[in-house]
Amino acid sequence: MGMKEYIIKVDDERQDIMGGMPLMDDPIELVRCKGCVDWKRRECGTYGYCERHDGFFDQNWFCADGESKEGR
Predict the structure, then answer these.
(1) What's the longest Cα–Cα distance across the chain?
(2) 3-49, pLDDT tens digit by residue?
(3) Would you call 39 exposed, middle or buried from its count of C-beta atoms within 10 A (0-12, 13-18, 19+)?
(4) How far apart are CA 71 and CA 20, in angstroms?
(5) How far apart are CA 7 and CA 57, in angstroms?
(6) Which of 11, 21, 28, 33 could form a disulfide with 39 if both were Cys (CB 3.0 to 4.6 A apart)?
(7) Would you list the domain boundaries of the chain?
(8) Strand partners, 28
(9) Which distant-in-sequence residues (6+ apart) come within 8 Å of 26 by Cβ?
(10) Calpha distance 42→64 (Å, rounded)
(11) pTM: predicted TM-score of the whole model, two decimal places
């Protein structure tokens, strides 16, 4: 298992004594194109085809609809 990235929402007006901020919602995993079930890598380069959005995207891009290949 590799590193995962998350989208978090915090209340930056409610910092605690250590500078931490409470989470407003549960974290949501950010799925980059290269790790998404809908993205198909091209033979060369960092771009691939997204079947969900019918277009070419860089492997490091992401969207709100990303679904991780790992969970399958």
Answers:
(1) 51
(2) 889 999 988 888 887 778 888 999 999 999 999 999 999 888 899 99
(3) buried
(4) 30
(5) 20
(6) 33
(7) 38-65
(8) 7
(9) none
(10) 22
(11) 0.75
